[in-house]
Design a protein that fits this description.
The complex is a heterodimer of chains A (552) and B (92). Chain A has a two-stranded antiparallel ribbon. In chain A, α11 crosses α15. Chain A has 23 helices and 2 strands. Chain A is globular. By secondary structure, chain B is an all-alpha fold. In chain B, 70% of the residues lie in helices and 0% in strands. Chain B contains 4 helices and no strands. In chain B, α2 runs antiparallel to α3. The longest helix of chain B is centred in the last third of the chain and has 27 residues. Classes of the chains: A mainly alpha (552), B mainly alpha (92). Chains A and B meet through α5, α11, α12, α14 and α15 of A and α2, α3 and α4 of B.
């Protein structure tokens, strides 16, 4: 710990302690009569308005990994692999505008907590619901682990623990941070990340506004920054004998890769259970819509965060530090801050990244816990579980999920977590046909959707495994070449998924396979109940009201 | 509620122009980022920003405004009784 800057370290620790205190205090915020219900613990009472919803959803979607990985991808390879994220966060809102209000309405009417709850109710299929829950948990685990990778990047640059060779001592700060997070999430539920999101967003905005105005002035202006980026992307990489990256995608193939990555990622984002959790926590249908038009404000910030990658390229000491650290591009932004700022503001910026990791990590573990409890435990193990038991189980599962992610982040090589995250995006996209088509039509057959899902999962995993680069034999990236075009694997797998679903639906319909019961009604997809559905009287010990509405 | 094609027939049939405007607003905001050749150029520069980067950054507030207009248009499709109900809820 000899080379740790005391001022930077102190500021990060103090801000972390404040946030932890807020996390514990959040249990008392907007307190409900019966906190032991998943509508309370998992969805914060389903009562957040536009203002709180903006902080919650924004703080949830833009993760610490975004702050680290997007600029590091821009730093390494420019527009196609990195800056596509900006295009992606633009189109995600019009796309979500098409189906999220409907998901909100039907979930509100039927008291659905997870996307798999909706699938269960809509298709009357336990298998399809299990597939959706399983995919959700599978995709969330590496995503949570990557929040830790984001924190690790900051800790490494701060010099915390790097001098020790003992894994446990080296990762002790990370372990402490995550234990604190796990405990307050289990106690306070969704209220904790919601309150912390205010602090996160304020710090992140402060960090990025200062970066946008201060850093270019220090290193010779935007002209110099873009020139450095362009020069680096055009330079020939000695290993691959190809240019390092793409500054502006002018060839057909790079444009297609850029567009399919953006479209695929955008379709995937609101299939992620944590994005759905934050959305269902809002009070009215209008709140979702308004947020879809207000959240692009957050994306502007992401645009500038992405450009930090070029700023890092334009600053020679940062490039040298990254090279010295074994060429780990994830350290480029933390190093840039460290070189540019006085140590107190480095502390604030680092704290922004660390706290930025806590909010999505908490929401993701809540979403994974709800999926496990509602769609696996209650569905297959204990159908008569009371809301109280559901909540207790969820609290423990959220803890276990974080522990798993921690072991993941510490025990496995970092590239492995990143590969899994890449796969997670491909996997979660395979839920899209069942979820989104289900919001508009019952035309697809439930077994056909299951077959399509399986086809997409298998194809996507194999295709991602087979992507090779000169430096890696497998998992080399998220695009591959289909019929001579460079395309995002997730999108190819999605097209295959849809094709199989359509074909199999025709077959199952011709064979008159049973359709399954649908407990939803058409008008419920546009309903806007002012009151959350009565959270099934806890005293009665019945399950939450996912059933019974239609059978009446 | 967003896609006119899937709405209950009445509001869409009653307001064909509004419904078309909603659909165009949503699909245009997706199309003009997805169709990369439109903006994959270095010039004209805006200040020091190459056009490609400037376009994407400037596009975000535009999408925000378009979606805001879409929301206002959708309110016209809502039957008056429900619109009044949600207005009362807002006032609270």
């Amino acid at each position: 710990m000899s080379n740790v800057n005391a001022v930077t370290f102190t500021i990060v620790v103090v801000l972390f302690v404040i946030v932890a205190g807020v996390g514990f205090a959040a249990a008392r915020w907007r307190r409900a009569e019966d906190m032991l219900h998943l509508n309370e613990w998992g969805l914060g009472g389903r009562g957040f308005g536009t203002f709180i919803g903006w902080f919650l959803i924004g703080g949830d979607l833009y993760t610490a990994y975004t702050f680290i990985a997007v600029p590091s991808a821009v730093f390494l390879s420019g527009a196609v692999a990195g800056f596509f994220a900006v295009s992606y966060t633009i189109i995600v809102f019009p796309i979500a505008m098409i189906f999220m209000p409907r998901l909100w309405s039907v979930s509100r009417v039927h008291n659905y907590v997870t996307p798999a709850d909706f699938i269960r109710g809509r298709y009357g299929s336990r298998g399809l619901s299990l597939a959706v829950a399983f995919t959700g948990i599978l995709a969330l685990m590496p995503y949570i682990a990557l929040q830790l990778v984001g924190i690790q990047a900051v800790l490494t640059v701060m010099g915390v623990g790097t001098t020790s060779h003992n894994t446990f001592i080296r990762d002790l700060p990370l372990i402490i941070a995550f234990l604190v997070l796990a405990i307050f999430t289990a106690l306070s539920g969704l209220r904790a990340p919601t309150m912390i999101a205010f602090i996160k967003d304020a710090l992140v905005y402060l960090m990025i506004i200062v970066a946008v105005f201060y850093i270019p002035a220090r290193i010779g202006g935007w002209g110099h920054i873009f020139a450095a980026g362009e020069a680096h992307m055009k330079a020939i990489n000695p290993t691959t004998h190809k240019p390092n990256g793409v500054f502006i995608p002018t060839t057909g193939n790079s444009q297609l890769a850029f567009a399919t990555l953006a479209l695929g990622s955008a379709c995937a984002l609101f299939c992620y259970p944590h994005a759905i959790t934050a959305t269902l926590a809002t009070r009215r249908r209008d709140v979702i819509k308004r947020n879809m038009s207000l959240l692009p404000l957050y994306s502007i910030m992401l645009g500038f965060i992405a450009l930090l990658g070029y700023m890092a390229l334009a600053d020679q000491p940062t490039v040298a530090s990254v090279k010295k650290a074994g060429g780990n591009a994830q350290l480029s932004v933390p190093f840039l801050f460290q070189h540019m700022y006085p140590s107190w503001f480095t502390g604030i910026s680092f704290a922004a990244i660390v706290i930025g990791a806590l909010v999505p990590a908490a929401i993701m573990s809540i979403a994974a816990a709800s999926l496990f409890t509602r769609n696996i435990f209650k569905e297959f193990v204990k159908p008569d579980a009371s809301p109280r038991l559901e909540t207790r189980i969820s609290q423990w599962v959220s803890f276990a999920v974080k522990l798993g992610a921690l072991l993941f982040a510490i025990g496995l090589p970092k590239t492995f977590s990143i590969n899994l995250q890449l796969l997670g995006g491909i996997w979660i996209l395979q839920v899209f046909p069942a979820l989104v088509s289900g919001l508009f039509t019952r035309w697809f057959h439930r077994w056909a959707l299951l077959a399509g899902w399986a086809a997409g999962m298998i194809f996507g995993t194999i295709a991602a495994y087979r992507v090779a680069t000169p430096t890696a034999s497998h998992w080399g990236g998220s695009t591959d070449i289909e019929f001579g075009h460079t395309v995002y694997i997730g999108l190819t797998a999605l097209l295959l998924n849809i094709a199989v679903s359509v074909a199999a639906t025709l077959i199952f319909r011709a064979a008159r396979a049973p359709q399954g019961a649908d407990e939803t009604l058409p008008h419920q997809y546009t309903a806007d109940p002012a009151e959350a559905p009565a959270p099934a009287p806890a005293a009665a010990g019945t399950g939450a009201g996912t059933s019974g509405v239609v059978s009446d | 509620m967003t896609q006119p094609a899937v709405k209950p027939r009445n509001p869409v049939a009653a307001h064909p122009v509004t419904s078309a405007a909603i659909a165009i607003g949503i699909f245009a905001s997706i199309f003009f980022t997805l169709w990369v050749p439109i903006y994959a150029r270095a010039t004209p520069k805006a200040g020091d920003f190459p056009f490609f980067y400037f376009y994407l950054l400037a596009y975000m507030p535009v999408v925000g405004i378009v979606l805001w207009i879409v929301i206002q248009l959708q309110k016209r499709l809502t039957p008056p009784s429900r619109a009044a109900a949600s207005a009362r809820e807002e006032a609270k």
